[in-house]
């Protein structure tokens, strides 16, 4: 994911850092190893209107204002400056970006994961979730930096997007994320479960923050805070029964299979043969060619938080 920026007003828009890619450099002329997510395998049941709108707003704000001479002053006014703590900047700062790569990286991750989280939370719930995670990411950032960084404005949506990643990992831990790589001019793709892909990214945020001591052009504290808040809220909603996690839904399905087979007199034959760890890929076979039971159909029609 494109990292949150601590905006440097002296270097302005030329200050760009791109951790969306992994680079190996020994000499200037060496080749580059490039890895970037390009999508996931997780269809949604509703059109993610809010996610599309957030992406459009972020793009329009940057294209309309990011190349103007007054953008630095705009960042000072609407960016989040920890020493000032102006209330509205907790939210306005997440719609500003420091460069085109900063914007593209953030919007790429929002495009890949946001639609599925919106599908679970509903349109209004997703919008509130996004804004709250962004604001809490800024709050964590202000508490995790040394005093000499408190006067530097911080901008970027990755605090909010980190919250989306935290929810995505908890709700879809085994869903596959597709990656594209280019190693020594050799392209290819691979898939990785979100539990490992996002989990590795989160661990790296802790490592990077520790190594930098909080003195960095990247707001690692906002990433850590946004992710934790998003994950905690998701767990609470699952345990309260407001939403269902992907793995929980599959466990419920297997319970229904066992109940129906027990009623038929074949106690656990199918259950023993087909049960899998909920964190492993699950291929749902067709046990009932004449149609699913009423209990199973009702189980599939769970209602996400509207």
Question: What is the number of helical segments per DSSP (H or I, 4+ residues)?
Answer: 11
Q: What is the tally of beta strands?
A: 5
Q: What is the top-level CATH class of the largest domain?
A: Mainly Alpha
Amount of helix: 40-55%
How does CATH name the architecture of the largest domain? Answer: Up-down Bundle
Shape: globular
CATH topology of the largest domain: Rhomboid-like fold
Overall domain count: 2
Give the structural class: mainly alpha
Regions with pLDDT < 50 over 5+ consecutive residues? 7-31, 267-271, 293-306
SSE string, helix = H, strand = E?
EEHHHHHEHEEHHHHH
Query: Largest sheet, described in full?
Result: 3 strands, antiparallel
Strand ordering within the main sheet: 2-4-5
N-to-C CA distance: 28 Å
Give the C-alpha Rg: 22 Å
| Beta-strand share of residues | 5-15%
What value does the average pLDDT take? 79
CATH homologous superfamily designation of the largest domain: Rhomboid-like
What would you say this structure looks like, in words?
The protein is built from eleven helices and five strands, in the order ββαααααβαββααααα. With 306 residues, the protein is mostly helical. It folds into two domains: 5-239, Up-down Bundle (Rhomboid-like fold), CATH 1.20.1540; 246-300, no CATH class. Helix content is 51%, strand content 9%. A hairpin with a 2-residue loop joins strand 4 (176-183) and strand 5 (186-193). The two termini are 28 Å apart. The strands form two sheets. Strands 2-4-5 form a three-stranded antiparallel β-sheet.
């Amino acid at each position: 994911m494109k990292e949150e920026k601590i905006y440097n007003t002296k270097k302005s828009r030329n200050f760009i850092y791109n951790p969306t890619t992994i680079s190996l450099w020994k000499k200037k002329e060496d080749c580059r190893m490039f890895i970037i997510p390009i999508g996931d395998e997780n269809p949604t049941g509703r059109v993610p209107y809010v996610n599309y709108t957030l992406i459009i707003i972020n793009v329009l704000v940057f294209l309309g204002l990011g190349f103007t001479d007054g953008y630095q002053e705009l960042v000072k006014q609407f960016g989040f400056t920890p020493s000032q703590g102006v209330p509205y900047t907790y939210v306005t700062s997440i719609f500003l970006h420091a460069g085109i790569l900063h914007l593209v990286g953030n919007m790429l991750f929002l495009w890949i994961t946001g639609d599925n989280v919106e599908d679970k939370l509903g349109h209004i719930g997703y919008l509130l979730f996004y804004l709250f995670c962004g604001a809490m990411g800024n709050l964590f950032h202000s508490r995790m930096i040394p005093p000499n960084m408190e006067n530097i404005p911080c901008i970027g949506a990755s605090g909010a997007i980190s919250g989306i990643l935290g929810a995505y990992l908890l709700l879809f831990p085994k869903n596959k994320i597709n990656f594209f790589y280019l190693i020594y001019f050799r392209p290819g793709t691979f898939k990785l479960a979100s539990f490992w892909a996002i989990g590795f990214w989160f661990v790296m945020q802790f490592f990077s923050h520790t190594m930098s001591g909080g003195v960095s052009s990247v707001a690692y504290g906002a990433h850590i805070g946004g992710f934790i808040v998003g994950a905690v809220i998701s767990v609470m909603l699952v345990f309260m029964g407001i939403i269902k996690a992907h793995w929980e839904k599959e466990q419920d399905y297997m319970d229904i299979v066992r109940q129906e087979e027990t009623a038929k007199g074949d106690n656990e034959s199918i259950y023993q043969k087909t049960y899998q760890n909920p964190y492993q890929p699950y291929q749902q076979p067709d046990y009932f060619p004449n149609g699913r039971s009423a209990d199973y159909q009702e189980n599939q029609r769970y209602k996400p938080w509207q």
